[in-house]
Amino acid sequence: MSATTTLLQATQSEAVTAIENDVLLSSSLWANVALAGLAILLFVYMGRNVEAPRAKLIWGATLMIPLVSISSYLGLLSGLTVGFIEMPAGHALAGEEVMSQWGRYLTWALSTPMILLALGLLADVDIGDLFVVIAADIGMCVTGLAAALITSSYGLRWAFYLVSCAFFLVVLYAILVEWPQSATAAGTDEIFGTLRALTVVLWLGYPIIWAVGIEGLALVQSVGLTSWGYSALDIGAKYLFAFLLLRWVAANQDVVGQPSLDTHSEGTAPADD
Q: Transmembrane stretches, by residue range (predicted)?
């Protein structure tokens, strides 16, 4: 037990040193800490007058995005959610020890469901459909984490990567095919279309970076460059997305105020004002 504890402490200490010595890597993390902090303050201010029940739910989900992010990036900077793994045979860096920012996957498993929840509430989708899509999203993140951490087999890394992509397809189908119809019925199709395009384009970047980065084919072997790729996507997919959504919701509470998710339930009718 003591040997294991010592190893974990040494690894965490080494991770902090490695991050501090890599300007590209550390800047990619600190930039998001700063932006997440500013986003939290801004979103609290922007949501000060939000009162409609569904609008408040959207605001709450939106606020959770930078709250999760700032915690995650501080975890990476502290070395708490960073480790070193030895790449398996078949990998371009087989036998070499590389840094794994596995904490990013935990962040995505918590923040991306909030993004989908906010989108689903905006489009007023059926609550059962929303649950299925969020479950698929969490499955995508968990299998992505497995793909990043497996050291026993290069083939299994890619197997989990493909499973993760399969979950991603479920999410994409809902966002691109099913939810736009609900958004049109709810009268939020214009802003939904903008946020859908932003989400789909940026989310497609994550599996691409994984594939070409150090975790996949290692065509790009710089941990700092890969980290900036993920961080840049996070900036657009989280803070920009959340800002655009909250700004629209705050100005259009009469639209998102009704109907609510409950109106999709059988036998439920909107109340008379």
A: 25-45, 57-85, 105-123, 130-152, 158-176, 197-221, 227-246
